[in-house]
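Researcher: I'm preparing a figure for a lab meeting and need a structural model of a single chain. I don't have an experimental structure, so a prediction will have to do for now. The sequence is pasted below. Please return the structure as tokens so I can convert it later.
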Amino acid sequence: MNILQVSGVSKTFPGRNGGTLALQATDLLVQENDFITILGPSGCGKSTLLRMVAGLDTPSSGTIALDGKPVTGPGADRGMVFQSYTLFPG
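Model: Understood. Here is the structure written out token by token.
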């Protein structure tokens, strides 16, 4: 059973010249007991994708479903730890 299904999700932030493409159309299936890692260079859309899965941002296109229900906003069934300058130095 798919716990998380991301289908054709993309995000473009409004702005000049058509805006800024933050995440190209992305598909992802996470099944029960899966352990996944999202890797990529700075600015490739990792945090944008996680914010949309958390319900803190909305996709420009595509759908996100958690346990078969559409993600339309934040919920008590998921959480997110934010990046911050207060993390331990590297």
